[in-house]
DNA sequence: GAGACGTTGAGCTT
DNA sequence: AAGCTCAACGTCTC
């Protein structure tokens, strides 16, 4: 349309660090790689062609929204010049449709994050200045904790929690990259990819580049990089996982935080994704990705689908014996189960000894904690210990047998 | 074709 | 705390 009308169109790559077409041209055969270290070699070269980010000043005028284009009809038409236009039920004074006009119900979560670039920059700067830059310089992703009680609060945090801002373009990946580089310059002994904070931004770029150059990246079938796995299809198991009633408090607490806050820590995503797919329930990673896309504030198909393939050993990562235990893993971070107590208040008075496997608590303890397993909180829908016993048998797959267990 | 290596496991031995 | 083993791994380098 612009061309027909003689309007010049200027296109810039801004959502990623690099121009993904140019980045892929640096890959052998123009094909994306599925290994991070080779990716970094190509990225290093392309980064040299990336100009410094321009941080635009805030606009003087509110943007003009064409009500016809937005499908709202003439009555909702407003513009910057008609500043006296009253807000209608369907849209505010800037023409932004109301939640009701978009057929959305009232807010269901008490957690409200302020959006926008101003807020994003303030949050980024808060991270950068933490411990005078030492926090950013020392950032090692695998050793951050997934059980923070108030991850978006103003105090010190486990990870940056900037993902919703990056997803919506409130925060430029290039701005973040440059600001972190400035901190590194002042701290010569800073961490390095893949575990550093720069490394995290490069993981984002990695999945974007891979998605950009891979047909059917978002699914298993007809996806050339995705291992074809005969997942089972059990709607009951999927629903129990989605609705936080697996009977494993760590899994259910994370799924509850996901629904309430729209965000969980990276390692909590690992835990619930592993549990749904290769670890325990053997359900398709695509089903899990759909749930994440509904519930995550930072939901991003390139990153989300890529990480689901990773966790399910469908691409990028294949060490199947690195498997998360829904009981042992959270104990490393939260011995007393404060995170579980916050998100699953039914269990708040449960003894710490049984907080991650409450079905093992004697009935007297259950009564004392006011929480009967099977009644106030579900029994486990799957036996993780049994599955582990199976993988640990030192036998060829064909000779393995399920050990007998008590009902 | 062998060997190193892979952001983030568990459970055991030393 | 650090090192070892998983007996269903895949990719890259030499
Ligand atoms: C199954 C699964 C699904 C995921 N789905 C999403 C998603 O939909 N959207 C999303 O943004 N992230 C997703 N992630 C990646 C990661 O968990 C989040 O980006 C991270 O937890 C966001 O928190 P943060 O901003 O504090 O991260 P930080 O550790 O502070 O990292 C800074 C930024 O780097 C990027 N980043 C960090 N980790 C990754 C990663 N593993 N892959 C790609 N980019 C990364 C993000 O943009 C993040 O905001 C997923 C991970 C898993 C295991």
Automatic annotation (TrEMBL):
The record marks 231, 285, 308 as: Electron transfer via tryptophanyl radical. Its cofactor is FAD. Residues 199-393 form the Cryptochrome/DNA photolyase FAD-binding domain. FAD binds at residues 159-163, 200-207, 298-300. It comes from the Eukaryota. One of its GO terms (cellular component) is cytoplasm. Keywords: FAD, Flavoprotein, Lyase. One of its GO terms (molecular function) is deoxyribodipyrimidine photo-lyase activity. Binds 1 FAD per subunit. SUPFAM superfamilies: Cryptochrome/photolyase FAD-binding domain, Cryptochrome/photolyase, N-terminal domain. GO terms for biological process: circadian regulation of gene expression; entrainment of circadian clock by photoperiod. Gene3D superfamilies: 1.25.40.80, DNA Cyclobutane Dipyrimidine Photolyase, subunit A, domain 3. Belongs to the DNA photolyase class-1 family. This is 6-4 photolyase. It comes from Chrysochromulina tobinii.
């Amino acid at each position: 349309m612009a061309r027909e009308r003689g309007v010049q169109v200027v296109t810039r790559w801004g959502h990623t660090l690099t121009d993904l077409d140019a980045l892929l041209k640096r890959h052998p055969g123009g094909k994306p790689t599925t290994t991070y270290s080779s990716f970094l070699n190509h990225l290093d070269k392309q980064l040299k062609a990336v100009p410094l980010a321009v941080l635009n000043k805030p606009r003087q005028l509110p943007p003009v929204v064409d009500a016809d284009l937005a499908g709202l009809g003439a009555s909702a038409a407003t513009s910057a010049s008609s500043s006296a236009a009253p807000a209608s039920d369907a849209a505010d004074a800037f023409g932004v449709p109301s939640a009701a006009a978009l057929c959305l119900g009232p807010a269901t979560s008490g957690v409200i994050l302020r959006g926008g670039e101003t807020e994003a920059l303030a949050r980024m700067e808060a991270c950068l200045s933490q411990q005078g830059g030492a926090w950013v310089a020392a950032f090692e992703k695998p050793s951050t904790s997934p059980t923070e009680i108030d991850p978006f609060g103003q105090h010190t945090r486990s990870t940056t929690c900037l993902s919703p801002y990056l997803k919506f373009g409130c925060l430029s990946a290039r701005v973040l990259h440059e600001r972190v580089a400035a901190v590194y310059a002042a701290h010569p002994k800073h961490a390095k990819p893949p575990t550093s904070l720069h490394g995290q931004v490069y993981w984002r770029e990695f999945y974007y580049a891979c998605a950009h150059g891979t047909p059917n990246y978002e699914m298993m079938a007809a996806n050339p990089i995705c291992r074809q796995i005969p997942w089972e299809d059990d709607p009951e198991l999927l629903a129990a996982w989605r609705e936080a009633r697996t009977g494993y408090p760590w899994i259910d607490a994370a799924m509850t935080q996901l629904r309430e806050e729209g965000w969980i820590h990276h390692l909590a995503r690992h835990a619930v994704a592993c549990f749904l797919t290769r670890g325990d329930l053997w359900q398709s990673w695509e089903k899990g990705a759909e749930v994440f896309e509904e519930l995550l504030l930072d939901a991003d198909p390139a990153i989300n689908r890529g990480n689901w393939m990773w966790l399910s050993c469908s691409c990028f990562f294949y060490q199947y014996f690195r498997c998360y235990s829904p009981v042992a893993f959270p104990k490393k971070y939260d011995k007393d189960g404060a995170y579980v107590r916050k998100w699953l208040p039914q269990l708040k008075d449960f003894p710490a000894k049984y907080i991650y496997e409450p079905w093992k608590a004697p009935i007297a303890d259950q009564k004392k904690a006011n929480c009967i397993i099977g009644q106030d909180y579900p029994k486990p829908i799957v036996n993780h210990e049994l599955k582990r016993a199976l993988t640990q048998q030192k036998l060829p797959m064909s000779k393995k047998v399920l050990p007998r267990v008590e009902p």
